[in-house]
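stuck on whats below:

***
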Amino acid sequence: YDHNYVLNGSTNAMSEAATVTGEKSGIVMKVYTTLPGIQFYTGNYVANEKGKKGAVYQMREGFCLETQYFPNAINEVNFEPPLLAAGQKRKLATLYAFN
């Protein structure tokens, strides 16, 4: 997978974007963000990547949840623009919480 998802809720307000639960470990990860989208990526080009305690990871043995503006937002008038004008400020946040 390498897909961008549109998030429900107001942009600029911290909202829950995703919840993932580990089937074996029971660990729960929640993602909260002020951004309008989240990219779900499953390591399509990972090969022999060394990890902790001697683990070696292969293609699609992990995933990323990356909060972001929509791909090609700069060219789409209906997407929230990712650019700021000179002097303009914007506060963005992403929080990853684990239980």
Q: What stands out?
A: The chain has a mean pLDDT of 93. The chain is about 0% helix and 35% strand.
